[in-house]
Amino acid sequence: MSLLLVVALPFFGALLPGVMNSAGRAACAGVTFTVSLIAFIGLLTNLPTVLAGEVVTARVEWIPALGLNFTLMLDGLGFFFAFLILGIGLLIITYGRHYLSRDDNMGEFFTYLLLFQGAMVGIVLSDNVLLLLVFWELTSLSSFLLIGYWKHLPEGRQGARMALAVTGMGGLAMIGGMLILGQIVGSYDLSVILQNRALIQADPLYVPALILILLGCFTKSAQFPFHFWLPHAMAAPTPVSAYLHSATMVKAGIFLMARMWPVLSGTPEWFVIVTTAGLITMVLGAVIALFKHDLKALLAFSTVSHLGLITMLLGTGTAFGAMAAVFHILNHATFKAALFMSAGIVDHEAHTRDIRRLGGLRRLMPVTFGIATLAALSMAGIPFLNGFLSKEMMLEEATHTMLFGSEWLVPVLATVGSLFSAAYCFRFIGHTFLGPVRDDYPHKPHDPGAGMWVPPAILVTLVVVIGVAPFLVQDFVFLVAKAVIGDVAMLEVKYIKIWHGLVPALYMSIIAVVGGLALMLIYKPLLKVWETTPRPEAKVIFEAIVEAAARMAQSIIHPLHNGSFTRYAMIGLVAMIAAGYHAWTTGTVAEPVRELQAAGAVPIAGWGMLVAATAGLVLLHRNRLLALILIGIVGLMVSIGFVYLSAPDLAMTQFTVEVVTIILLLLALNFLPNQTPVESTVLRRIRDAAVAVAGGLATFALAYHYMLREAVTTPISEFHLANSYKGGGGTNVVNVILVDFRGFDTYGEIIVLGIAALLIYALTESLLNGPVRRRLLNRVPDQPRAGDMHPMMMVVLTRVIMPVVLLVGFYIFLRGHNEPGGGFIAGLIVSIAVVMQYMASGFAWTSARLRYPYHGVIGAGVLVAGFTGIGSWFVAQPFLTSAFTYVRIPPFDKFELATAALFDLGVFLAVVGAVMLSLESFSRLARRADMPDAEFPMDIDPSRSDPPPVQTAELKEGN
Amino acid sequence: MTHWIILPIVLPALLAPFMVLTARHHIGIQRVFSLAGIVGLIALSIGLVWQVSDGSVIYYRLSDWAAPFGIVIVGDRLSTLMVLLTSVLALFVLLYAIGSKWDERGRHFHALFQFQLMGILGAFLTGDLFNLFVFFEVLLIASYGLMIHAGGNARLRAGVQYVLFNLIGSTLFLFALGSIYAETGTLNMADLAQRVTLIGAEETVGIRIAAVLLLLVFAIKAALVPLHFWLPSSYAEAPAPVAALFAIMTKVGAYAIIRVYTMIFPPELEVTSGMHDLWLLPAALVSLAIGMIGVLAARKLDRLVAFSIIGSMGMVMVAISLFTPSSIGAALYYIVHSTLAGAILFLITDLVRTGRGTLDLTAQPPMMGTHMTAGMFFAGAIAMAGLPPLSGFLGKLMVLDAAYSDDLVVWVWAIVLSSSLISVVGFARAGSIVFWKALGTQATVEPATDLSRPSALAYAAIGGLFALLVAHTVFAGTVHSYTTEIAEELFDHESYFSLVLDTPGKLSNPKEAH
Amino acid sequence: MTLSMLATLGAALSLLIGSGFVIVGVIGLLKFNDPMTRLHAPTKVGTLGIGMLLLASILNAMAAGDPSMHELLIMAFLFVTAPVSANFIAKVSIHKRTCEAPPKPLKDGTWSTLDAPKDE
Amino acid sequence: MMSIEGFFDIALIIALVALATGQILSMVRLVIGPTTGDRILALDTMVINALGLIIVLGIHQGVKVYFEVALLVAMLGFVSTVALARFLLRGDIIE
Amino acid sequence: MELIVASAIGVLTAAGIYLVLRLRTFPVILGMSLLTYAVNVFLFASGRLTIGAPPILDDAAITYTDPLPQALVLTAIVISFGMTAVVVMIGLGAYLGSDDDHVDDQPESDASEERP
Amino acid sequence: MARAYRWLFPHPFLTLLLAAVWVMLQNQISAGMVVFGLILGTIIPQITSVWWPDRPKSIRLGKMFSYVIVVLWDIIVANLQVAWIVLSVPNARLKPAWIVVPLELKQPEAITVLAGTITLTPGTVSADLSNEGHSLLVHVLHTDDPDAVRDDIKNRYERRLLEIFA
Ligand code: NA
Ligand code: NA
Questions:
Q1: Which of A188, B464, D2, F80 gets the highest tally of CB atoms within 10 A of its CB?
Q2: Residues A838-860: pLDDT tens digits?
Q3: Rounded to the nearest whole angstrom, what is the distance from the C-alpha of residue E100 to the centroid of ligand 1?
Q4: Cα A148 to ligand 2 centre (Å)
Q5: Which residue range forms the structural domain that includes residue F19?
Q6: Are A662 and D43 in contact (CB under 8 A)?
Q7: CA distance D6 to chain A (A)
Q8: Beta-carbon separation of E10 and A720 below 8 A
Q9: DSSP letter (8 states) at residue A2
């Protein structure tokens, strides 16, 4: 079967348990088992090739440019691990089917498990380091889900997060390391990398790469100082612990060290780091394991210890060490999975895993006892069990290893580790199964059904078979070991056998076993010493670190993002000024080429007014009405400035916009406080003023700079001036630019205006349909009101002047193309005319008589402009292409018909609609509950009291 | 001349007023129009992408005036890709808005939505700098409307800050444009690119300031630290589908930086050297760090997602600011990824809000319908945190790979990787609190009555986005080689220039222009 | 002296007179010490001042041989709107009690500005 | 003896200066107040003076296209005066 | 003349920035208006200053001022008018809902706020 | 027929005014312009007539014309007077006064014209209307005899307006 399929099967299979969930637990487990089995068989079909010493490969391009492809390879090492993963996986699935209770969601469980399985297989079969990283991180993620599977347990959540954080961190570091390797070699293909030992080890980035990759390995394999997460992962259901945290995931780090062994090992750095970490882990894990009362915790630390052992072996960098490591991996997988399953059985049956509450199970659970004892003894290194063999090899290797210039350091520590290892194994057997039967088990234990004990039994059978007849696996181990060392070193003669003679390793073994037994004798006093010894609790430290990190993150983020706009604005403005200043200081300045134009008295006076009004605004801004008056003056001065500087269109627009803006702000000010209180400190005001002055100087300097210089070449507006009449049909070049040359800008601009009005309308609706409505209705005016809402003089004036203003608006609209004016200004003029009417007779009276659907006006305006643009398509011209012609119809003078005018009509309508809809919205907010609609256009009308007004009756019918 | 390239702008721009005019009281009709419009947009953008996929450029003279005198629309592989991304995102966001009935909770949602699209698409397609300003304003003002859609106190208060900050940005844009016109006398991007090369070394301050101001404008859009402050509250407070749509808005800034700083002010341009090539990368790295630290620091899920957007933009900007074809190729790949991932997370956040009643990251009673939501959150978080197998991881690898030869590679790698870790921790923390940690075992809370439960359509919308994300992952090779080709094209503009500047328009002879 | 020269002279005189009135109006605005009296100066004097300037514009156009009358329109607008502005400002003074209290009206109860609705 | 054109030019300058002075003096009234009515009056005066300025600038620069600007100021200038006064009188300017 | 215009831009910018940094929405909006004036004049000045030569084609005219910045400023004025209206309305809505017109979020109001 | 006329020209005076304004706006006269002005003068009042529902009785144009002449003359005189007062009368000697003008005019249009006239002419500003509209409050800048001013207003302006708006 293709390797791709072997890897893909668990992933696609992962969809099934979830789907099958409703079909029942058996179906769920069954489908999972089937998927695993097919993958397993698929793997086995490749065995002959592997045994023949060939490498099976498969390749699918994924991201070739990045060098990340689905490149898989299967050699001895890969096969070995894949075999373990899938084989033990099958057993775990069987076991898990019976282990999980009815409350547990089995589909979810098996989905995660299969995901994990696929990721693991992916790691060991990857022939691309980036692909390997993908699978690597996937194991972290799926293990996160599995550890946190029992969501109600806080330990599960914490354990899951810890595992993810630690292994995730390692994975990220490894990304760095792998990328370095890939960049050194020029390929991310593992097979290529593995052939470039010399190149890699000579590179200055070898050490960083090594450290980063080892970080990944050590975290995954729970090596000191990252060993602490593994015991907390025991919150996972036992099948998970057995699978991930003994047989597979924690071996991923070991696998990778083995995989990269040919290119990374053999240097002093590798040796010191890996051996030391392994050694410390081995001893530390063993010591801690001895004092754990939770069966699974004990086993977890034993796993840590054994992984340390394997790491140490790989660290020695010798071929023998590598072979011993491979052999121990195999052995550890068999006995440790069996042990975990046994512990799970005990937990499952006795409802506790606390060794202190157990004992005497030998009689109640004989089968379990047998399995667990054989596995534990193997772990303790008792002869005729497989653990003994590999441990002997480890001790043998230790005697040849010199660390930090000392010949005895490694052998002694290895013996101490073995000693403690033996001790906890004896404790596991003794305190759980031996001793008298108790009467206070939380639940009366007995052996489980075959579904639960057969899987560990199979494993224990292997333990014994290998232990007794190691030659059966010798060739296989040899094959795998050769895959590990590649062509870097040569393997010695076949070594795997039970009896080597009276070598130092044998004495060390004996010391360990005897010492272990002795420790059991003095266990109680030892425990007391242990418990009174203060020692760092990894979980507490980790949680503290995460909490501290979170708190630090909060102390960085929250004060910085505290919702203070003024701070944000300040930071932003300072950044802008600083960036501009930086650009300025790093640039060059030449002499100006233009001369200053003389300024007469009038511009100077105008400037003075502007400055005075602006300064007044800053100083008096707390009086908001006064501020509005002053801003009106600023606007007026700017308008006059535009007139002075030959920009009549701008002056008109500025002036009319000013009027409408003031009306708008007054409408808003009606609701807002009329005063701005003094709140900021003097210091703060000085600071703000400093930034303000800096900003002012910056824009002054910039404007002054370029006004005295010429553009680098002729501005494009030369073309506009030259072609405005010829091609645009208008003599007002500004208007022709607006409706023709850059009509598309204008199109966007009226849309902005339309959106503004829609937004204002929508928000008004929201406010009036929300809790604000009541407050608005019962609002008490914040100032005494005068009488005479609709003064007669204003009404009468409006009656006459409003039609005139409309006429002028029309005039401005028409001649905009040739003289100052245009749709936009006309729109504003017409809007102001209607506002006059609103101000004269009130909103209710006015709008009751003529309710334009302003929405529609906006929509129509934008559509007219848009369709004018589209119109040009029908004459095969681009969007908005203008056309014009001159017409003469007596008695009128010759006049111009231009599509631009139609476009301008759209502008006009959009402006009118937008302004009116906005003002209408503001007025709707101001309607009070107690205010009846005005019946008459003016409050006081002496003519009304004499003859009754006839017209109003007519009007009412009309509306 | 075909008109296809202008349609992505004109179609929503006509649809919106049409809805306002005819269907403003009929939400059903609006939905149909809106959906139909977006489906049309998608079809259009696929066609456009197809048309330029061979490296050709589509050029459109508005009002028939040739560049640089009139406004031109230019569709190349970069802009059409962004157009396609926007319209596809819009479809799913709109489906969610309909499915969750968000569109009913205020007025004119669909019109504003269409206008928003018009602004974004226009910004991607225009070849004129001032026109870009106009489209920025269109997209901004529509975004204000969408952001405060349905009202509410906190939202309006955040809205005020959002609007004000962006007003400062718009003002800055005009300052930049004024400087550029004063210095060069043109507004067309291609013309500008040619004119800046005429500027001598004896006087560079003017164009330098223009270039840096423009960069700041785009940096605001891209939420680059320290100009990112507008983002967290406004994205957190915005209605979920709106925030999801906003995922593309930050990319407008990134797009503009790519366009302007590869075409007009490329790193090798002497007169503007030593500015953006100096500051952009550090700022991007800080953004990445701040964003991901924010993920860890967040006390509410919506702010967490908002900060993750800042972080992902930091990542995009890191890639951009390396200014090599491979880094920009990576940036474009990552842009697509982070747009989808950000949108997904915002929509899921809405599901959490609906199911749980609050987004506080504190223990709450268990929520309804957790399973699906939790799974989606997990996947979304994986995507955003850049864990495998989703595109975030691939994008991260691309960026790291592209950074290898940069002087600051150590910084880039260190910050990219460590911020990744921080965000993993942050997401894990938040996810486990929201979905795992529950107060007691009492019955799940019924969602408050005023929160209408999202329908299957809402879930389907998120599912659709996930499908896109998966496709982006599975076909990463194709996408990546495409984005790399785009990036290479960005560093070689000759065909673009000759097309835009040498094609005559009404009354113009291209020879006279220069 | 040609007609054109006469027009120019007239324009110059109009300019001087107009600016004189403008200045006087503003002086009144500054000088008087009561809001109501201040109201008199600019609303009237200013208006005539601008009127003279407009006249100058008309005469100037005439001198240039390009007669123009639309300035009259501006004058008309000013004359029509100025009283309303003044009326509103006066109402503000009455309402805000910033001027001497007006006597009671002869026929009716009170002045409209002071006739504030009771419920407000 | 001064030519008529010279006299006219001087008159123009005098008018410009007078209008500018008028603006400045009105500004003084605006700042010193004391009542808001005074300030509105000052603003109104300034708008009218601005109108004068526009007219005289048109004469001065020999440009006729400023007419529309002046027309708008004359026609709409009073609107902001009325709006401000209405605000003081009633609070809501278009109730 | 250039000095006058440039310094006017500077003064308007400075005042605008100062007001934008105030604590209440109303002065901040006024500050934005001042900044808008400043930038409009700035943009206008990018066409350089010309007196007495409006860009209205006329056979008698010898020279014209640069019409393009004028068109740009017109667009900018209109857009900023729309923006002003919007920000005023949103600010008003925020004030009506919370009785608070601070632009900054107030620490104490954070806790009590409910979101629909 | 009369009905149609009234529908077409709700305010004939306004139509003429608009046509005149249109022509003045063009700053030149041609037949086409007048026609177009009349067309606009017909259309615009149509639109705005909803806001001018009352139909004022016809105005006597002849009398109106002479009234305008009188007022224009008075404006010039008044301006000179006020200018003199501004420049020569110190604040201490200034004798401002309120005067109340009882109104015989009933029509709003007529009262407004009167009030406007008062504001534009000799040292007077019309400040307010009484709450039933039967008196006008006028402020006088400087007078020794308020009653004379009142009588002057009534005789010189109100009497004429009563005839015009008969
Ligand atoms: Na108020
Ligand atoms: Na603006």
A1: A188
A2: 999 988 888 888 767 888 899 99
A3: 13
A4: 52
A5: 2-51
A6: no
A7: 17
A8: no
A9: -
